[in-house]
Amino acid sequence: MSGCRTLESMLRRFGQLAVLLALAGVQVPVAALAAVMLLVSFALGMVFLFPPQVRMVRRLAQLHRRLVGRWTGMAIEPPYLPAPPPPVPQADGMYRSDRTLYKTPRVPAWSERWRWMLTDPATWRDEAWLVLDPLVKVALVPLFLVMPERGMRVYALWADLLLGATAASRLAGQVTHLRRTRTLAADSQAAEMRRIERDLHDGTQARLVAIGMTLGAVEQLVDTDPNAAKALLAKARDASSETLTELRRVIRGIHPPVLAERGLSDAVRALAIDSPLQVTVDVDMPHRPDPPVEAAVYFAVSELLSNAARHGDARTATVDVSANGGALRVTVTDDGLGGADPSKGSGLAGIERRLAAFDGVLALHSPPGGPTTVTMELPRVLPEYWAGEPDLPRWKSALVIALWATAWCPTFPQGLVAGVIKVAGYDGDPSWFLALRLPEPLQWPTILGMTALGVIMHVMAVRIPASHNRDHWVGRLFPGPIC
Amino acid sequence: MNRVLVAEDLYLLRDGLVHLLQAHGFAVVGAVESGPELLKGLLELRPDVSIVDVRLPPTFTDEGLQAALAARKQVPGLPVLVLSQHVEQLYARELLADGSGGIGYLLKDRVFNADQFVDAVRRVAAGGTAMDPEVIAKLLASNARNEPLAALTPRERDVLEAMAEGRSNAAISQRLFLSESAVAKHTASIFAKLGLAPSEDDNRRVLAVLAYLNNR
């Protein structure tokens, strides 16, 4: 049975090899064409041929990335820098490219793209790959025939070498991602501010004006018609009550008081109590996240619970907030009808926007008939890095102490000092120095060995604690997903 | 004459409360402005009733509520009326959790209506309950899918609301323009529908209703 499977997978690999070789047959003419186009576009100044040439090569490279990814499971990320944004007109409606102004965005857009392709190192890596790849494929054929699995693996490594992402392209991708989330966060904050301004302007402010006017009327009436003044005062009092009610609503939308007073876990419990559903809350968080994170999670849970109560016909729900290393994971499940569609309601999109500011993601699982599960994960928002770094295990600490306590002995007296004494030709009592008591031919090897041993012990004593928390400080240096 | 302790950090409001209470015949034995002072005052002065703001210095979180809860842990049933700019069912539950009565939880703007406010203070001092209508409204809203509650008639629901706020039969009859016997009849019917054991004592009755609503 297993032999059958091996044979099957071997045959599959041979099929893939055939595809690769067929592609090599395509690559050779394409490489020739690409060389001609490149030559013509730069040597003869026909620069308009360069972009189609690059696009052609990229398409072929992308096909290889996809095939290798599918066949070996080794995902090769495209290394290209993000495409330039479309040109933005100036105040006078003209488009600028260097020192020239254009009426339409066509030429500036074209030259931007041209520069983008020309300056992207990935373009030239692709060209190099195109030339070398057919040779590599042919060279790998014997290996493929003997060990198809290994052959495919080697080919994947080769493809990743020239087609994979580089640190620079990853960084560029990350910058684009950050710019996008920053814009989203700034936009949603501005929208929030506008909403608050409108609420205060149309509600609270207008009511306070009305109260002021009522009080003015009372002032005029108080001598002539005390009864009417009294009635107006009662009215003013009611109006101030209503103003307070409204202000409370606005404040709840800005930052819920219970969140300020109690923090996330109790605020979520308060939400659960206020919900008409039977909500079970489970919060397991060693530290409180930052207030903006707490607010984002609070509003997300609030929205999800009210969604469940409104649309899903649910009776019970569970909210689970837990820390997963430095990440905060929130799961909201309800037993409603399911079939929630994020593209229909704006609630889920709003939550996603809110979470995006913290690189948070939302996953919705809502099959028709239920249950609906929403999982939100906010990476690296918990103060784990500066509050609870995992300590060195005891044996490692003991080893480090022992190294520090003993490393001096081989380095200095038995190593360096003995060497100095030997060079200086001192011939006193050598009893302290092991090397000097040994027969002559063994003396230098011993001195050098001792010095090397001491240095190695020092290096280990420094390295063990430093490398222990590597993941943590790397996480601190590069927050956010690498994409 | 009831001895009152006032805890409020805003001078104007504290002063206003003291004057209001004095004008209605209370003896104000202390007016404090922070959580630690409040706890000390509650335990040392043992006031007949205290008016406590939830948010107090030094943390400006729920310092006042925590002090009140801590004091009631040591002196069960110590009457406390908690005032706040916002009401939370969570806090109401915490205050009611020990089941010993003598608890009030009102929005600050209820002070505007002096008579009703003083009535609430007296009720709490006497070991009764004074829950803000807004708390009760939220409580009923979160019980929206409770079937026995849905079976109540609109009139019975009104009576239930007033009862949950902590009012006696006499006060309910005044507010709803019913005879006291009619209120008693409604009450009996409510208790039967909710499956609660009937009780003659007003305070016990209120606590039973609140416990029922909180334990849906």
TrEMBL record, chain B:
InterPro entries: CheY-like_superfamily, NreC/VraR/RcsB-like_REC, Sig_transdc_resp-reg_C-effctor, Sig_transdc_resp-reg_receiver, Tscrpt_reg_LuxR_C, WalR-like. PROSITE patterns: HTH_LUXR_2, RESPONSE_REGULATORY. The keyword DNA-binding applies. Keywords: DNA-binding, Phosphoprotein, Transcription, Transcription regulation. CDD domains: LuxR_C_like (cd06170), REC_NarL-like (cd17535). One of its GO terms (molecular function) is DNA binding. Pfam families: GerE (PF00196), Response_reg (PF00072). The modification 4-aspartylphosphate is found at residue 53. The keyword DNA-binding applies. Residues 3-123 form the Response regulatory domain. One of its GO terms (biological process) is phosphorelay signal transduction system. Residues 145-215 form the HTH luxR-type domain. This is Response regulator transcription factor. It comes from Nonomuraea terrae.
